[in-house]
Amino acid sequence: MSENRLYIETYGCQMNFSDSEIVASIMTSEGYSLVNDPHQANLILINTCSIRGKAEERVWKRLKELKSAKKLNPELKIGVIGCMAERLADKLLSDEQVVDLVAGPDAYRFLPKMVAESFHGAQAANIQLSLEETYADIEPVRLDPSGVSAFISIMRGCENFCAYCVVPFTRGKERSRHPQTILHEAENLFQKGYREITLLGQNVNSYHFKDDRLDMDFSDLLIEVAKINPSLRVRFTTSHPKDLSNKLISAISSYPNICKSIHLAVQSGSDVILKRMNRKYTRSWFLDRILTIRKMIPEVTISTDIITGFCGETEEDHRQTLSLMEEVRFDSAFMFRYSERPGTIAAKKFSDDVPSEIKAKRLQEIIELQHKHSLYSNRQDVGKTFEVLVEGFSKRSRSMLSGRNSQNKMIVFKPKKSSIGQYTRVKITGCTQATLIGEELENTTQ
Ligand code: SF4
Fold first, then answer.
1. Cis-peptide, bond into residue 238, ω within 30° of zero
2. pLDDT band at 295 (very low <50, low <70, confident <90, very high)
3. Share of the chain above pLDDT 90, in %
4. In this model, does residue 42 exceed pLDDT 70?
5. DSSP string, 99-127
6. For the chain, what is the largest distance between any 2 Cα atoms, rounded to a whole number of angstroms?
7. Cβ of 173 below 6 Å from ligand 1
8. How crowded is residue 259: how many other Cβ atoms within 10 Å of its Cβ?
């Protein structure tokens, strides 16, 4: 067994999982081997998220557990990296007496040096944010064993300053990666057998790379990735409604392998709340985008994020959210109750004044309505046939396979000929609110 054994634990969003793959690459090129069991590691890096209070709570709880692990194994070093490290470096290093190093999202290149310092008994911290760092030259080590779908981080940071969000403070200014490095990474993944790539960014559709020779926006990049091979599916997340241009919608509709699903976070249906959230669009502008998307891409599915109980939200604001949901009929949604995050604009300027039980009641109404819409959307697909990229076994049974269609709907079916990593055609015979159930028709090997 190698002397230096690293275990990486990741919390929070997909951006964080993608960052863990960059960290794995940096550390393995310095001689670390990755282990799947924390008990075998002499270095544990916890990649943290500050977006929701719950993710932070889980990290504090985990650090308590690791305190006992350290007592049993004094050689063990613990590092906290990512957004929480950026926000709470001092507290992490002092309070728990368990953390040996903290590194913010722009300091991963310094990790080997910091880890070496910690093995010499010093605590190490680097939470410097950068205006340039994109880790463009680092080929991530893929931690998801499926070998079918991969994420490529195309930009870092965000400067939208939505009032409830901590990201602009923990991840700094927006920086777009050089397109050639992205295309190179996507081509490599395709050669290795991957058949689906998701382009990732906190605000992915504001991607813009410009130098003396190149001027590329997100639609241009998306098309270039799609051109790598028609058998390579391309997705992207997360897009901001204000940056969803007609040019981008047209790119999605023109290339069959650019997936026909768009995630567009609306957050609220009330103009008053959207303004207080600093979302930079109105309800009618959002609805107009939805009309345009559906006109240009009739087979598209649209998903969203909704936050209920934001500062000052009245019953009328809440009704506006429900009525927007009725108007759009999202195919799926991530729904949350607002929880104040320290350091955000909302924490500084507004009072978190919607009582907890009202937030819970509103969230329940939103969830119930969305479940109705998701079920309606899935029922429309019964009887249709879709091309499915097989991703793995169904969570419930290893005799069933699961994969997604272009519309990002999960489909479970009994395999006849297909296997993981292949495309196949599945006829939908039934559904739940969350899943389509089908029968495999034929197998198309890609
Ligand atoms: S777009 Fe808004 S919610 Fe998304 S990361 Fe940026 S500030 Fe946060």
1. yes
2. very high
3. 81
4. yes
5. --EEE-TT-GGGHHHHHHHHHTT--EEE-
6. 64
7. no
8. 23
Collapse the DSSP code of 201 into the 3-class scheme (helix H, G, I; strand E, B; otherwise coil) and give the result: coil
Can you give the length of the chain in residues?
A: 446
- 158 Cβ closer than 6 Å to some ligand 1 atom: yes
Output the CA 263–ligand 1 centroid distance in Å: 14
Percent of the chain with pLDDT over 70: 98
* For residue 2, pLDDT beyond 80: no
Q: What is each CA distance from 49 to 20, 60, 74, 249, in whole angstroms?
A: 12, 12, 27, 31
Q: What's the mean pLDDT when you consider all of the chain?
A: 93
Determine the residue of 14, 16, 50, 165 to mutate for testing ligand 1's pocket, defined as the one with the most ligand atoms within 8 A of the Cβ atom. Answer: 165
Residue 427 parent element (H or E): strand 423-431
Position 442 scores a pLDDT of: 67
Assess whether the C-beta atom of 240 lies below 6 angstroms from ligand 1: yes
265 lines ligand 1 (CB under 6 A): no
Q: Which amino acid belongs to residue 18?
A: S
pLDDT tens-digit profile of 8-20? Answer: 999 988 888 999 9
Measured between alpha carbons, how far is residue 410 from residues 176, 261, 301, 315, 415 in Å? 31, 12, 12, 34, 15
Given 3-state DSSP classes, what are the helix, strand and coil percentages for the chain, each rounded to the nearest 5? 35, 25, 40
- Nearest C-alpha to atom 2 of ligand 1 is from which residue? 162
DSSP state of 264: B
348 CB contacts (<8 Å, ≥6 apart)?
A: none
Q: Which domains does the chain have, with CATH numbers?
A: 5-126 (3.40.50.12160), 149-379 (3.80.30.20), 385-444 (2.40.50.140)
Mean pLDDT of 247-257: 97
- The C-alpha angle with vertex 419 and arms to 142 and 333, in degrees rounded to 5, equals 65
Q: Mind listing the pLDDT tens digit for each residue in 91-140?
A: 898 866 799 999 999 999 999 999 999 888 888 999 999 989 999 899 89
Distance 13 CA to ligand 1 centre (A): 12
For the residues of 267-315, what is the DSSP string, one character each? B-S-HHHHHHTT-S--HHHHHHHHHHHHHH-TT-EEEEEEEES-TT--H
Are 271 and 282 spatial neighbours (Cβ–Cβ below 8 Å)? yes
- Determine the pLDDT at residue 397: 85
